[in-house]
Specification:
Blueprint (H helix, E strand, L loop, with lengths): L6 H7 L4 H19 L7 E7 L2 E6 L2 H9 L1 H12 L6 E4 L1
Parallel strand pairs: 2-3
Antiparallel strand pairs: 1-2
Length: 93
C-alpha cells in the first residue's frame, strides 16, 4: 500500500527544502517582530531577513546603539519564538 506524506512532513524531512524552510522562518520573524517586542513598536522595525541575518531599522542612532548592546538577547528571544536557531546575526540600518 502506498503511503502519503503531508506537505509539512515533506518540508520538515526533505533536505532540498531546508533553505526554503529557513527563509520562511526568517520572514515569520520579520512579520512577528512586534509580537515578540511590542515595546519597540515605535522605535524599531524588522525590515528583511537574508542569509540568517535580520535587518532592523532603528528610529535614530541612540536606539540603534541601545539595540546593538542588546542584540544577543534579541537574537536569543527571536530564535526561541521560532523554536530553532534561524537568526545568527542582526544588522541595524
Amino acid at each position: 500500500m502506498r503511503s502519503y506524506k503531508s506537505i509539512s512532513e515533506i518540508l520538515n524531512e526533505e533536505k532540498t527544502f531546508k533553505k526554503f524552510k529557513t527563509a520562511v522562518d526568517g520572514y515569520t520573524v520579520v512579520d512577528e517582530f512586534h509580537e515578540v517586542f511590542p515595546e519597540l513598536k515605535k522605535v524599531a522595525k524588522a525590515k528583511k531577513f537574508e542569509n540568517s541575518i535580520l535587518f532592523i531599522h532603528a528610529e535614530n542612532s541612540v536606539w540603534r546603539s541601545e539595540l546593538n548592546l542588546n542584540k544577543e538577547k534579541i537574537i536569543s528571544k527571536l530564535n526561541k519564538f521560532i523554536g530553532k536557531e534561524v537568526i545568527k546575526k542582526i544588522k541595524f540600518i
